[in-house]
């Protein structure tokens, strides 16, 4: 059953309770490889479901527009102080509702509509909010985009510099949503200084790895840092903005009153809990295990002849180009889900196929590492992936069902926060 239990929900709304229970069981029975997903602790779950959701708190600690903030102010202050300590930053704002609004606040703080901004192109591994044309950030600002080299799948910083010198952007985003390699924050900072741009490091995917010392930090290189609080950080669905002292006031004004009203205090509490967990020695072990598992899984896939973008991974994420397998990413992802292995289809750099039917799949190891799986299980998982993809090409649904059974048998030995 769901942990913590939901007896009041079950009594008041059995239909919703049934769906919650079913989702908890689904998460328990699947090898969850979507790199942006994880399992939060029972403590984070409990904090998210507290009476803090009842309270409005527009403004910041000590400067609210509603009374009754005697306990909310120290709670938010605690979350801010923990963020500053974990990441070593001058300033943190824990109020953004999610990653995209956090990034919008950065634009509002430092840009006027129509000014030039620069980010990684979405098909190359960037994020929608880094200026891609279907996003508000690509419609309200003049966006220029960099990519990766076709031969290597890696960012060419000489090309980034040439583009920045030619276009003179006001903001430069580094980071993204499908980048399997270490981000060279120092190199991006050098480019940003040369064109007098503000460097924004979007660390949403790798925040937990940075907190645990398994990836270099952008602190000291990027004036502004944006992140979600879930993914590798193992917190609730929320976001944070961090910065040096010089850019703090503009960011705070952009979040409130620029974009948002009252913060979600129950989420703030859960962020504080997650940051407290991230400060523990065990979290450092977790972050390094995530990377070790990803590298072991990547190596096992390479041994089976799979084409990995950039040839492997330095972090938690693997991007697989299935072109040499004669199958698209979407049918492969759907078949793998039926086989008990959850990941997502994804474009790959220079993908000739359409985004809704791309050539690749994207997978990562944060969630399975939380469950306690280690490098010794990665060849088994790679074998299941290979078997399922081959079975899909052969329309062998029975083999896919057998894999799902084997997955459930393996996961029985690995407890999941949120299900017992």
Which key phrases capture this entry?
420 residues; alpha/beta; Aspartate Aminotransferase, domain 2; Aspartate Aminotransferase, domain 1; 2 domains; 7-stranded mixed sheet; 4-stranded antiparallel sheet; 15 strands; SHMT-like_dom; amino-acid biosynthesis; one-carbon metabolism
Task: Note down, in words, how this protein is organized.
The chain has 420 residues and is of the alpha/beta class. The protein has helices spanning 7-12, 14-29, 42-48, 72-87, 99-110, 136-139, 157-167, 185-194, 207-211, 248-259, 265-278, 281-303, 329-338, 366-371, 378-393, 397-411; strands at residues 31-32, 59-60, 63-64, 91-93, 116-120, 142-146, 171-174, 198-202, 224-228, 239-243, 307-308, 317-321, 341-342, 344-346, 360-364. The strands form four sheets. Strands 4-10-9-8-7-5-6 form a seven-stranded mixed sheet, with helices on both faces. A four-stranded antiparallel sheet has the order 11-12-15-14, covered by helices on one side. β5, α6 (136-139) and β6 form a beta-alpha-beta unit.
């Amino acid at each position: 059953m769901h942990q913590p239990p939901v007896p009041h929900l079950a009594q008041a709304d059995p239909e919703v309770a049934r769906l919650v229970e079913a989702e908890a069981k689904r998460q328990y029975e699947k090898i969850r490889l979507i790199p942006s997903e994880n399992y939060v602790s029972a403590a984070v779950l409990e904090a998210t479901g507290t009476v803090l959701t009842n309270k409005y708190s527009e403004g910041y600690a000590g400067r609210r527009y509603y009374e009754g903030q005697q306990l909310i102010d120290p709670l938010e202050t605690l979350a801010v102080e923990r963020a500053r300590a974990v990441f070593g930053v001058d300033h943190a704002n824990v109020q953004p509702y999610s990653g995209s609004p956090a990034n919008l606040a950065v634009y509002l703080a430092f840009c006027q509509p129509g000014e030039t901004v620069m980010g990684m192109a979405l098909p190359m591994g960037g994020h929608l909010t880094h200026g891609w044309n279907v996003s508000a950030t690509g419609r309200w600002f003049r966006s220029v985009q960099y990519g990766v080299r076709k031969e290597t799948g890696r960012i060419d910083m000489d090309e980034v510099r040439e583009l920045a010198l030619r276009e003179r952007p006001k903001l430069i985003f580094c980071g993204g949503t499908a980048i399997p390699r270490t981000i060279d924050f120092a190199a991006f900072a050098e480019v940003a200084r040369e064109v007098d741009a503000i460097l924004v490091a979007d660390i949403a995917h790798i925040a937990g790895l940075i907190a645990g010392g398994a990836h270099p930090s952008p602190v000291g290189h990027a004036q502004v840092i944006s992140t979600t609080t879930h993914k590798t950080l193992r917190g609730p669905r929320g976001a944070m903005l961090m910065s040096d002292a010089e850019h703090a006031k503009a960011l705070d004004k952009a979040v409130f009153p620029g974009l948002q009203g009252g913060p979600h205090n129950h989420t703030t509490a859960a962020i504080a809990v997650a940051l407290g967990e991230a400060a523990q020695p065990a979290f450092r072990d977790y972050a390094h295990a995530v990377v070790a598992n990803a590298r072991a899984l990547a190596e096992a896939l390479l041994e089976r002849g799979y084409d990995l973008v950039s040839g492997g991974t330095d972090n938690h994420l693997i991007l697989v180009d299935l072109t040499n397998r004669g199958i698209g990413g979407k049918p492969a992802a759907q078949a793998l889900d039926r086989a008990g292995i959850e990941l997502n289809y994804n474009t790959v750099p220079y993908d000739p196929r359409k985004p809704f039917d791309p050539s690749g799949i994207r997978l990562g190891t944060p969630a399975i590492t939380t469950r306690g799986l280690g490098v010794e299980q990665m060849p088994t998982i790679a074998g299941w992936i290979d078997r399922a993809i081959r079975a899909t090409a052969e329309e062998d649904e029975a083999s896919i069902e057998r894999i799902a059974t084997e997955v459930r048998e393996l996961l029985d030995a690995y407890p999941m926060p949120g299900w017992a």
